[in-house]
Amino acid sequence: MNIQSGFKEDFLWGGATAANQIEGQYDKDGKGLTSADFAEFIPKEKRTKDNHLNITSDHVKEVLTGEHEGYFPKRFGIDFYNTYKEDIKLFAEMGFKAFRMSISWARIFPNGYDKEPNEAGLKFYEDVFKTLKSYGIEPVVTLSHYETPYGLTEKYNGWMDRAVIKHFVRYAETVFTRYKKYVKYWITFNEINIINISPFTGGGVLTDKLENPKAASYQALHHQFLASSLATKKLKEINPEAQMGCMLARMKYYPNTPNPEDVLKALQDNQRNLMYTDVHVFGEYPNSYKKFLSDNNIELDIQTGDLEILKSYTVDYVSISYYMSMLSSTSPEGKVTAGNLMNSLKNPYLEASDWGWQIDPVGLRIVLNELWDRYHVPLFVVENGLGAHDKLENGKVHDDYRVDYLKRHITEAKRAVEDGVDLMGFLAWGPIDLISMSTSEMSKRYGFIYVDQDDYGKGSKKRIKKDSFDWYKHLIKTNGKEL
């Protein structure tokens, strides 16, 4: 019996992005508005969870009418719409085998429900895919990455309405057909669990005037699950060789103490997080989720045939973002640290990033082993990276802290492979500096490539290689053997 040592030869090294964080040109060539276009940059001292993630219907109305003026960085990105050839050339120089990107639904169907697709949008992505293929880079394409067309919010309150399912499937069918010869790897929804944390971010749902916002977010999730399954069905009909993945923001919970109550709480928190991938892989809602719904007096509108759809069209692989681990406690006393949409008790054994995200490389090995043991389908790390305050000095960025962070995480990913995990690839989040999802700031930098642009979009937009650029290039060249 042979256990693999190191990464397989066709391992997919590369980087990951989202359309709304890099493209810009939010109103060019027929593109419609999306949920991301309402995310305002707010300086740290004025920032709260409510004003940068839980967007209200009044805020949206005021932005549309011009009553509320502000800077909305995701409308401008880093101008990848115009610089994609230059940027992809840099990715190729690093030796990328894969590049994860998303298609903005509103570039293809500006309102989400239009009768005909927008040819200018279709052509843009085709040109991007052709450029990637010219360098031998595999596109890994997310259909919906926090960019629900605003037209669907206006007409249906986003994913609250079942009608959005048919519009999503039509959009998916359109791009599957158009890009059949360019794209092998697809993902339906980015971090699908986020719709239950920030419904507007994850599904274009405005909850502030709903009677039961929590129940609404889980109903919207049910519609996304159905849409994901039906899109998977379409993909297999159009291109049987292509692969469909789901994507989870994996939030690993440890018990805060050996107290059995904390251990039980961690078990339940992990069940809640893994429910999303359970549905995608097993095609059914787990009993633990049914109990959660019952305990919270949530009754989903599940129509005849829905459960059969979920069961019939499951995914080929599971992809995850992994940035941190969390602590579960039945006694919420203690120091709290900030996280990506989440807060957690501070783990005394872990250091934290500039943004308070607890750095836990070993947690990645744990997560990959647990997912493999649970699902026995290929796994794909499609987001992992360090957001930090980078300093450009004399034309250089010395980001040894980023190299250290990635080196430690990739080492643990390699150990997971040697444990027997089937891992498809590793895509570093933000291979080029981009707009932060959660805070819409530019100063939270992830890239191997520095972009000369500040939080208000000012700067030359010049691309500058950081020290980590050459490190990652060498890592890919040696297939992870030389870290």
Automatic annotation (TrEMBL):
InterPro entries: GH, Glyco_hydro_1, Glyco_hydro_1_AS. Keywords: Glycosidase, Hydrolase. It comes from the Bacteria. One of its GO terms (molecular function) is hydrolase activity, acting on glycosyl bonds. Its EC number is 3.2.1.-. The keyword Kinase does not apply. It holds the Pfam family Glyco_hydro_1. The keyword Magnesium does not apply. It is an enzyme of class 3 (hydrolase). Belongs to the glycosyl hydrolase 1 family. This is Glycoside hydrolase family 1 protein. The lineage of its organism: Bacteria, Bacillati, Bacillota, Bacilli, Bacillales.
